[in-house]
Structure formats: C-alpha cells, structure tokens
Amino acid sequence: MREVLDDLERWWRAGEAVGMATVVATWRSAPRPAGATMLVGADGTAVGSVSGGCVEGAVYELAASVVAAGAPVLQRYGVSDDDAFAVGLTCGGILDVYVEKIDPATFPEFGGVIEAIRSSTPVAVITCVAASKASVALAPGGPVIETDAPAAAAGDPAGRLGRRLVVYEDRVEGTLGGDRIDDAVADDARGMLANGRTGTLKYGYEGQRRGDELTLFVASYHAPPRMIVFGAIDFAAAVARIGAFLGYRVTVCDARPVFATKRRFPDAHEVIVAWPHRYLAAEADAGRLDNRTVVCVLTHDPKFDAPLLEVALRLPLAYIGAMGSRRTHDDRIKRLRDSGLTEAELARLASPVGLDLGARTPEETAVSVAAEIISAQWGGSGEHLSTMGGSIHHDT
C-alpha cells in the first residue's frame, strides 16, 4: 500500500470509494510480492500493480464489481497451458489477490495509518481475507487454478470477513471480532512488525493458533531500511540515487564539510558532516541501525576506512561494502586483521565493492553495488539467468 499511499489518501479524504486489490500470498515465480497493491478509483483511474501487467485487466474489472457490490473477494490467479495467455500468469506463478472496498466507512482507522507510515512509526494492518475452506470466487474471465482456497463469505457465521485490526507498538484499533483473537493476533503481528514481515496467518474463530478457519493478512509498515554511504565523492552521489530508488533511507557522511553538502547529494535524505567511525558508532549506540542496514564505504582512504570498518564489521548489519583496488583491499585487510578483527568478521566485507558488470562510470558502478546488495539480501548468485535452471526468485 505504501506505493499507492498518496492516491489512496486523496480518495479516502474526499470520501470516495476505492477498489483496492492486494497480493496476500504468492507461489513459484510470482511477479509481485505479498503487499503489492492496485487501486481502482471512482473515476476509473487505475494506480499501482499486482502482477506487472499479467492479470491487471481482470483485477480491474473485479475491483470495480467489488466497489459496486460492497463485499470483498479473494481471487486466485495462476497459469496452465490452456489459460496462460488469457488471464493467467505467463510467468508460471500463482497469486492470491484480495479485493475490497476502501472508504472512510469501511476503513475509519486509515487516517492514523497514514500518519504512522509518513512518520516512520511502525504499524501493522491486519485484515481478515478469508473465513472458510470453500472455493475461491471466480473473477470475470479469470481461471480458478485450485478450488480449495478460502472463499469470500461462506462459512463465516460471525461476519469476520473484511474485519480489520490496526496494531501499533503501544495500542490497537479496530477489532477482528473478540478480545481473545485480537490479543493473539496483536502479539503475533508485533513479532512480524519487528522483523518487517508481511504475510498471512491462520487462526480459529476464537483466536486459536492451531485453527485455520480464518486467514488474516498482515501488512507491516516499518521504517524504511537505511543505507549509509561514507565518502562524499561522485560515486557516492550515484549510489545515493540508486539507494533512494530502491527504497532505502539514504545518509551520506563525510568528515569534510566542503564536500558533504546537500547540494552535491540531492537524492540523499540527509548529509552528515562527521568522522565516519564516530558517526556509525553513535548511530549504533542510539539503536538506529538494524539487520537491514547497508553500509557503503567509498572513501578508499585508510585514515577513514580502517577505523570505520573496525566498527562496521562488528555490527549485525545486512551488508558492508568498501570501494578500492585489489591492492587497496589487500592493505585494508591487513590493517583490519592487525586491529584484531576475526576471519569471520573479515569475511563479511564485500571488497572490492560490487558485482563484476564491467562498470566504469559512477552510475554504472552504482548499479554494480546495488546488484550486490540485492544479491546479498535474497541469496542470488549473480549468474546469468539464461544459463541457469529452476526458480528465478529466491526466499530470504
């Protein structure tokens, strides 16, 4: 929902009903992850995507019908040899898409959710997307690949379908139908929220964790992950730009005030003048780093690099990369080893930084660095997909 938040807020504040389609589960080579969202406004405008174009036409029609009828629908889209080029996913994946009507009456808590997302306050929105084991409703023209997926309304005596619980770190809003289930779901959702996880959970009607009558979709909105770029050079500007594009909150840090300016790094969310190792240590002490944080050291100057990497390699960060030639790398490793870092800690350093793309310009180098960060996040090999078999998507 984050990617369509501006449009959804505009329609919601105007009191207009919007059809919102959300990917709640995926299998195999699905093109978009759980949480991907598409809106259909009252004026017929479509915003966002649930499949990169494969089933958007069918989802558009379904969203319009849901707004008119008012009842939410859970629809499964997949692929077979017969329907691959009709409405199915030609990529071979399977999507469960939940379509609902959104307006101030159906989602009165949305104003608080907007405020939380914009202020980077953690919040999870839990929606009951299914309440039985009957067949999935058929979208106009759409294939049903498996008929044992949860249905929209059958078998829901308590009217749980479409109910919502909004979970903050210190409170909850809304209800899923009772204190017991609200308490159980809030506890589990906070665990998912702490790890930035979005996905489905199953419960019994009264909140039993071993039950499966209710399928709940947990959409976690955590503060964006951080990218900290050290070294106010031209390569840093390109890395900051692609980091912001990938959804990171980007900080550029350098000890030289003449180079570390917002004008030179317009794509960075903040530009800090400080000694790199002191800044990183202070951020760690303040609890502003986590296991999603990536650090790119681009100074290739030992008086900055060595003390900075001593700090970074001892922190539980997602990625630590350092720019420099192979000679610089060898000298850097020797300095770090002499400073007492273990071989396991040194093995966490990506140096020279980036994948072998043959990059030459700052922009090409930034793509190389971003590719390595993505590969580290998802366990990719960096090989040509055309030479490989099996799934093209990786799980963490």
TL;DR of this structure?
This protein is 29% helix and 22% strand.
Annotate the secondary structure layout.
Layout: H1 5-13, E1 18-27, E2 37-40, E3 46-48, H2 56-69, E4 73-77, E5 94-102, H3 110-118, E6 123-130, E7 164-168, E8 172-175, H4 179-194, E9 199-203, E10 214-221, E11 226-230, H5 234-245, E12 249-254, E13 270-273, H6 276-285, E14 294-297, H7 302-312, E15 319-322, H8 326-338, H9 343-346, E16 349-350, H10 362-378
Parallel strand pairs: 11-12, 11-14, 12-13, 14-15, 15-16
Antiparallel strand pairs: 1-2, 1-5, 2-3, 4-5, 6-7, 6-10, 7-8, 9-10
Pfam families: XdhC_C, XdhC_CoxI
Protein name: XdhC family protein
InterPro entries: MoCofactor_Util/Proc (IPR052698), XdhC_CoxI (IPR003777), XdhC_Rossmann_dom (IPR027051)
Attribute tags:
alpha/beta, 22% strand, elongated, 10 helices, 396 residues, six-stranded parallel sheet
How far from one another are the termini? 22 Å
Identify low-pLDDT runs.
80-86, 134-154
Overall mean pLDDT stands at 87
- What global shape is seen? elongated
Structural class: alpha/beta
Count all strands and give the number. 16
Order of helices and strands: HEEEHEEHEEEHEEEHEEHEHEHHEH
Spatial order of the strands in the main sheet?
13-12-11-14-15-16
- Main beta sheet: 6 strands, parallel
- What is the radius of gyration? 24 Å
**Helix share, percent:** 25-40%
- Beta-strand content: 15-25%
By DSSP (H or I, 4+ residues per run), the number of helices equals: 10
Protein name: XdhC family protein
Domain XdhC Rossmann: 227-373
InterPro entries: MoCofactor_Util/Proc, XdhC_CoxI, XdhC_Rossmann_dom
Pfam families: XdhC_C, XdhC_CoxI
